[in-house]
Amino acid sequence: MAIKGFSSNDWGIRNSALMLFSSLTKRTFGSNKTADQTSVKNQMNIVEFFTRAPQLLDFFMKEINNFLKESNSKPIIS
Question: Would you give the distance in Å from CA 36 to the centre of its chain?
């Protein structure tokens, strides 16, 4: 929903999607601002994330390419 919300014409939905995406990203990948080794230990990197959920990589690539196509930009290699 966070990704799909970015394409809404409604500012409130786009804003909420951005906050949701930000929260999910921070929760999944963590933050480098802390020296707490427990939180660092439980973080996963981007490669591990997409290895565990390869269908999400396909989804992200499709959404990014659709956005680029609509904005007349060159698509990313998939």
Answer: 24
Q: Where do the domains of the chain lie? A: 1-31, 44-78
| Residue 57: closest CA among 48, 70, 67 | 48
Tell me: the pLDDT tens digits for 19-47? 888 887 777 776 665 555 555 555 667 77
* Cα–Cα distance for residue pair 61/67, rounded to 1 Å: 10
Q: Is the pLDDT of residue 15 over 80?
A: yes
Question: What token pair was written down for 7?
Answer: 């394409």
HSE-CB of 15 using CA atoms within 13 angstroms: 3
Which residue type does 43 have?
Q
